[in-house]
Amino acid sequence: MSSINIGVIGAGTISEFHLNAYKANPEAVIYAICDQNAERARGKAELYGAAKVYTDYRELLADPNVHAVSVCTWNDSHAEISIAALRAGKQVLVEKPMTKTVEEALRVQEAVEQTGNVLQVGFVRRFATNVTVAKTFIEQGELGDIYYAKASLLRRLGNPGGWFADKTRSGGGPLIDLGVHMIDLCWYLMGKPKVHSIKGHTYDKLGNRAHIQNINQYKAADWSPDVNTVEDLANALIRFENGASLFVDASFTLHAKKNEIRAVLYGDNGGVEVEPELLFVSEKHNTLLNITPEIQHRTFDFENAFQREIDHFVMCAKTGRKPISPVEDGTEIMKMLCGVYASAESGKEIVYE
Ligand SMILES: NC(=O)c1ccc[n+]([C@@H]2O[C@H](COP(=O)([O-])OP(=O)(O)OC[C@H]3O[C@@H](n4cnc5c(N)ncnc54)[C@H](O)[C@@H]3O)[C@@H](O)[C@H]2O)c1
């Protein structure tokens, strides 16, 4: 097989990053687009030259010419569509979060194990240059033993509304939408330690702040001022079996001076700031050092990271190789996200066996 035919399911905002990257990959052909919104599916198919347009993902999956799919729908259909795709013999790239619940994640994992097909979870930050460089340095022992990490993705005014703000379709707010990236980034760089316990908090103090004027903000296509059933802010302390801990917070809105992104890891031999800009911290000859690597993207570069993510998926789909963001990582991350929500709801620390 020299090139593979791709079907993209869900033709909204993020599908464009998938489609642009597939377009630039010589081994991928954009063959089919599906969206329950027929106009949206048709529009994207015309734009990217897809031969087939579907409004029902089951019909796309029944098409034997489709070899691999990107699942870019709302979070509530990720599990259902991924499982159906695997069982239909397709290779799958599913957007984050992999599912809405741990139970769904385990069912996806079972389908991967039973079919032997590829499933890559869209942890796009793992493919960013700053993260791949940090990973190489960490694997060479530059940080030593990593015992603490801190991640923040705080939006001052950034509840996208629509399905993002509707818990039944999204599974939650900024934690599952933004925190998922930051938790995964740190956990991946920490060497994927096993979770020991989670203490989480969620707050819904400010709502969607639909009344705020005189400032632009991104709004989902189905935005409505009346829909908001998700948290404004979540934070958590996640402790791992190896004794390391990760503190994370994520907000859709907060009385903060500005938006903030930060991902920092500390080891007994050195530290690394991955975001907002890659920088290593160390000491030499009794002197503290801040070391700035000379690389093209010291901060997260959306398009570049998506291209590398899609190129990796196409390679895995063609060869059957296990992706660097496999299904079991998707399940572990769901365990952490759902653990934060469960702890926030019960007011207790969740301790895992
Ligand atoms: N990796 C990232 O950085 C990143 C960024 C944004 C969004 N995402 C993820 O991508 C997914 C989509 O987000 P978006 O911003 O593109 O949302 P969106 O609302 O812009 O697009 C989603 C599309 O999916 C369609 N859809 C929903 N359920 C469907 C179904 N069962 N069958 C067919 N079509 C269906 C909707 O009609 C819509 O057009 C979400 O899971 C989100 O978390 C990832």
Automatic annotation (TrEMBL):
Family annotation (Gene3D superfamilies): Dihydrodipicolinate Reductase, domain 2 (3.30.360.10), NAD(P)-binding Rossmann-like Domain (3.40.50.720)
Domain Gfo/Idh/MocA-like oxidoreductase C-terminal, by residue range, is 136-349
Domain of life of the native organism = Bacteria
- A Pfam family found in this protein is GFO_IDH_MocA
Q: Which residues form the Gfo/Idh/MocA-like oxidoreductase N-terminal domain?
A: 4-123
By its UniProt entry, which InterPro entries does this protein fall under? Gfo/Idh/MocA-like_OxRdtase_C, Gfo/Idh/MocA-like_OxRdtase_N, Gfo/Idh/MocA_Oxidoreductase, NAD(P)-bd_dom_sf
Family membership noted in the UniProt record: Belongs to the Gfo/Idh/MocA family.
Recorded protein name is Gfo/Idh/MocA family protein
Which species expresses this protein natively?
Paenibacillus thermoaerophilus
